[in-house]
Predict the structure.
Amino acid sequence: MADVIPSNSVSDWVTRAVRAELESNGYSVIEGKQGDNVPSTSVIVSGEILNVFCDMYMSYTGQVSLVIRLNRDGKELLNRHYAGEGSAGLAIAATSESYSRSLALALQSALQKFVSDLNKTLAAEN
């Protein structure tokens, strides 16, 4: 079994991935804390990390599960569970890189579903 040593916390990893996914889809991201003065046209993204897990038997299986909420001007626009799975392929040798890649693919899968819902939600708002 390979050791997987994160370079940051799981919440930092997810936050950075959410930011990158939003920016790669054309959204501007401003980080802040709850209670910060936010313009009423802004959409606030928040949520919880439910599960981050990677297993290996014949192949790697990464799973990520999140609840993501969208709010605008005090109104909840979206509150959904997103899950993703990813695999770095066959497990020939247990390497930390393969675990990491599997989890990254799982998170990317979950966030792609979220961005799709975000686009639909904002289109329905306009």
Notes: The chain is about 35% helix and 30% strand.
